[in-house]
Design a protein that fits this description.
The structure holds two protein chains of two kinds. Chain A is α/β, with parallel strands linked by helices. Chain A contains four helices and seven strands, in the order βαβαβαβββαβ. Chain A has one domain: Glutaredoxin. In chain A, strand 4 and strand 5 form a beta hairpin. Chain A is globular and about 35 Å long. Chain A starts with 7 loop residues before the first strand and ends in an 18-residue tail after the last strand. Classes of the chains: A alpha/beta, B mainly alpha. At the A-B interface, helix 4 of A face loops of B. Chain A: It is found in: Nucleus.
Amino acid sequence: MESVLLPTLTKKEEIDRIINNTIDKVLVLRFGRTSDENCLLLDDILEKSARDVSKFATVALVDVDSDQVQVYVNYFDITLFPSTVFFFNAHHMKLDSGTADHTKWVGKFHEKQDFIDVVEVIFRGAMKGKMIVHCPLPPERIPKYQLLYKDV
Amino acid sequence: MATLEDSFLADLDDLSDNEAELDESDGDDAKKDEEDIDMDMADLETLNYDDLDSVSKLQKSQRYLDIMHKVEEALGKESDGTEKGTVLEDDPEYKLIVDCNQLSVDIENEIAIVHNFIRDKYRLKFQELESLVNHPIDYARVVKKIGNETDLTLVDLEGLLPSAIIMVVSVTALTTKGSPLPEDVLQKTLEACDRALDLDSARKKVLDFVESKMGSIAPNLSAIVGSAVAAKLMGTAGGLSALAKMPACNVQVLGHKRKNLAGFSSATSQLRVGYLEQTEIFQSTPPALKSRAGRILAAKSTLAARVDATRGDPSGTNGKALREEIRKKIEKWQEPPPARQPKPLPVPDSEPKKRRGGRRLRKMKERYAVTDMRKLANRMAFGTPEESSLGDGLGEGYGMLGQAGSNRLRISSVPSKLKINPTIAKKLKERNYAGGATTSGLTSSLAFTPVQGIELCNPQQALGLGSGTQSTYFSESGTFSKLKKI
């Protein structure tokens, strides 16, 4: 049923272009590599829900192994893969899911519906003018991880 | 220019020749027609015509005999189809075809007249038969078979009629008001039946002849509907140009039979199609698309008939193209609809919520509305401390509820708009009536028990069964125990 594969971005200009061109829609960028198992699970969910969400969101994948992309990897401080960053009208949206890092979503989603819920909440908040939104998922569904600060 | 003039002159000569011929035969017919009309007027006045020949004259007329003779000749020999005039009307074969068509219409009218005759005579014997068997030829056959017989079990109607109709006829014959006919009337009736069957076979012959010539007469029309149906259409319409002049909706119902339903529902299979029903295209379409197919067949065959009437396409390619078109259209109708793609979710908050109103919503809201009791409890009188559930200002306050000074007596007994369970409502009613001052004069709290005799308190009531004699028949809150439709 999913006919169109999600666009995979490898160059900095591509990322810039897509961030600037997505107007009035949430932009979902997944940072990860295709060899990772968690990443593949997340990609599967993203692909399945991309069409349903297409009226108010765009989904794209960023391959983290490419050189030009490392700028963004360092900027967003992405250490654990997969990580998902949300944008709206070229503005970075923060998501408070009870974890330490609000700037991105680390790990996979449990279900397609969870992802759609998160995107909807981000959309609603962004349309109202908020910069940070509260995650609607119950804590069991949120992947937990340990943030290492300088290997501490 | 000379040739044009010559052709005009030739046409004029032809016309005069035809007129001479027509005058001859018309003269006979005209005389006979006049006689006919006179006789008919006389007959109508007396309503008692005995002689078949006074009614049906066609078989004796010259025209009829001429044409039948020619038809038999032509059926016998192989015709040379190559020789055709540039104008259709010049072709002698076409003239014969036109005459045949006219004749077939006349024969049909004649059959109708004879059928009326038979019917009128046979009415005395078996009145209901005319409504059970509609088709005139079938009627004539059945009358011939039955004759003067009163007992229909001795008559074998197999093959003449569908078995359902045979059954109905046999049953109706048992209760018919008729009486056997006198010998001479019976003789005349049988003669008339024979006449009708003869006319029918003659008509068949004529139509067979027309059908065999159809390929050269109307190639386009026969390319679409087939030569048999084309012949029938032409025959009923009364000629190719007559058929071409008809609108397509009329062509669609040419030859539509009125079916005898005999108790079957008339809601199903009400297709308005006549001879077109017998075409190959119509037979091969699925039943759901039959009405649309009938319409398109009628439309395209009318076009083909118009082409043929003006001899625009002697080869018939136009007809074949139209047939292809019809086939393609029917195929297109049978295609499955395109598969549905799942719709993407709508943008959040883009569609405002539709708030509905109306009587239903109001009734729903009434169930949760603030009741009068609560309204009274919410208000307080000035200057008087309100009573409360736990006393002394503790617990819930009662407000104006139950105050002596308030000019409302307790709660008015307005029927609450809340819905109560019907079984609970029944129990409440019974309790009220049991305790109230106005009880039915027939209820009694005395119980007649087998052990003690009369008892004041009903031992069965403790068990919850109530008195055995306490009938529910006279109960105030009782419902109808037995409903019977009158």
